[in-house]
Design a protein that fits this description.
The complex is a heterodimer of chains A (about 425) and B (about 290). With about 425 residues, chain A is of the alpha/beta class. Chain A has helices spanning about 1-20, 45-60, 75-85, 100-110, 125-130, 155-160, 170-180, 195-210, 215-220, 230-240, 250-260, 275-280, 320-330, 335-340, 355-365, 380-395, 400-415; strands at about 30-35, 65-70, 95-100, 135, 135-140, 140, 145-150, 150-155, 185, 265, 285-290, 300-305, 310, 370-375. Chain A has 2 domains: about 30-145 and about 305-330, 3-Layer(aba) Sandwich (D-Maltodextrin-Binding Protein, domain 2), CATH 3.40.190; about 150-300 and about 365-415, D-Maltodextrin-Binding Protein, domain 2 (3-Layer(aba) Sandwich), CATH 3.40.190.10. Chain A has 17 helices and 14 strands. A 5-stranded mixed β-sheet of chain A has the order 2-1-3-13-6. Chain A is elongated and about 120 Å long. The N and C termini of chain A lie far apart (about 95 Å). The relative contact order of chain A is 0.16. With about 290 residues, chain B is an all-alpha fold. The mean pLDDT of chain B is about 85. Classes of the chains: A alpha/beta (about 425), B mainly alpha (about 290). The interface of A and B includes residues 86, 89, 105, 389 and 391 of A.
Amino acid sequence: MKKSILLSALVLFLVFGIVGCGKAPVSEPKKVTLKVFMTFPRFQEQFEAYFEDFKAKELEEKNIDVTIELEMPNSDQAAQILKARLSSNDAPDLFTLHAIADIPSFYEAGYLSDLSSQPFVSDLLENVKDIVTYDGKVVALPMESLAWGYLYNKDIFAKYNLTAPDTIAEMLNVVKVLKENNETPFLLAFQESWIPQLMTALAIGGVVTNENPDFVEKMNSGTASYNDIDQIFDIIDIIMENGTEKPFEVGNAAASAAFAEGKAAMWVQGTWQAQAILDINPSLNIGCAPLPTSDSEDGALINLSVSTSLAVSPTSKNKDVAMDLLNYILDKEASTALFEELKFNPVAKFHDYEVFPWTDEAMSYVALNRGYRDLSLPQAVTAEQAALLQSYYAKTITKAQFIAKVDEVWKNSLGQ
Amino acid sequence: MKKNNKKLTLFILPALLFYSVFTLAPAIGGFWYSLTNWNGLNKNYDFIGLKNYAAILKDTDFINSITFTLKFVLIMVVLQNIISLALAIAIESRNRSKTLFRTLVFMPNMISMIIGGFMWMFIFTKALPYIAQQLNNAALMDISWIGDPFFSFIAIIIVSLWGGIGYLTIIYLAALQGVDRTLKEAASIDGANAWQVFRNVVIPSIMPAITIGVFVTLNNSFKVFDVVYSLTGGGPGRSTQVIAMNIFAEAYSLNNRYGYASAKSMVLFAIIFVITIVQLKLMRKKEIDG
């Protein structure tokens, strides 16, 4: 009898003891999965590391365990994949899009959330914020901002004591000096049609901003024609007549190699390509200058635009966490390191890292008010200009036919 | 009887399912989209009936691509069949190493035409100019195979022939082996020379193969895409833009007018359908049985 009482008392003690020793239960972290779609396959590692930091921060501050499913397709398929997902109601929580080209159509289709009240907005640089604003709302977070004109070989220019020309007359002089010294003035690479299209982009930008500011509105209401800006052909003709041979056989990679080897002094290509050129020839000194379009230096302007930007889907089931991730991209402490590592241009006021020399050069023009915001042409017009420039070079169409065709395509695109 | 049918249906069910889901359903979907103005992006689109088809009639670029493709098809059908037949006869007439030549001729067919296009791009832009330079032939060096509209056309023909001849040669080889030898001997005993034997005995015997050859070339040439995409991309400008390239650009890069592009695809389908029916009917008459 005594033994059994003693035994039961011992057992009870043990049981209570164990229960008493157990930890007080902690609340389980909430599990959230975010689907992120980005078109930076070359930066996959950097973003994965950055998101790890985000996950740690989110767990610590808000007790949310975030799983991020990162999708990074190649840029030539990305647009199609994204459009298919969006239109079949399978939208990723966050996705990248091209600010100038995609924002209008994506916004009209209802795929972008209004981000105007988010904390990062107040940190954005003014001209960058302007580009991701549509219909009065900020609809995307800018990541890749660009300031570009054409690239030139500083060594060749220095050799003949040349400076970047501001007017057509000065450009003709530069061309003359280069030819006298057996250098090819311009690198022509027309195999990939988007490269010649950069000529019209810059030329139209210069002419429109300087002399015909409401050209785009007038074209959109059908009351203008490319005849009003046929001045763009002045610089385009100069480029085409003083360039390398057989441009249709030269793609982007081959052209970068040629420019790196000093085969031409100037190349109408954006600063995004400069890093690739430097990889081929690290000792090259690359400069960036605005393309002259008239006989005044006001017609030579740097193009300011934003390409890849991050948006949040309005149908996201975890909007709060998605917004947290979005704001983390421009987190005051972590963002500078990320942008510097990715070699993106600064988009926020607190981004104060060192940039490339050509970016500095381009921004120096902008500081003198010689920059313009990338014009929003209908996508059909941009693509048509690319094909028409190829035909114009091959002399299968005339200037008049070019103008007529691009007017027609613009008119047709308005019916969309 | 019924039991047999059931078994047969079960056997073809997997293939039928695959075909329905991946070929039939998209085709019907394509027809539906051709009656709308969907741009591939919006969740909503409107049914606009035959407006797309009306717009096609005014689309000069599309009509130009049709005429260009017709030129391409005509030249391909003639050249590809003649060259394949000639190769088949040459290989057939050999006593040894038939298999070796068969393999060699067929090998280009096994390479994807995109890869083939890039290979030939190197030949046209780097190898040929180099050879011309060594031979000191300035005229040959000046040819811009990819840039000049005329020479780009020739380049596309060359690469398409290179890729397609193998398949037809095998078909013609098989057909030639099936020609009744006694008929040929009888004809030559009666005094017919080699050309007459060929024209009056061999060709009628291999008519089924010629039907197949013309049919395959017609079909594939109308739908040509890979070669043009990898070699010239439809350029320069639109000078080598075949129908498939035009539709591709319309749907994906140029306008994002998915509905309109679907309508154009229906037109392409209709053209191929009509031509194929006509051609099959004509050729069937000329075939001999047995």
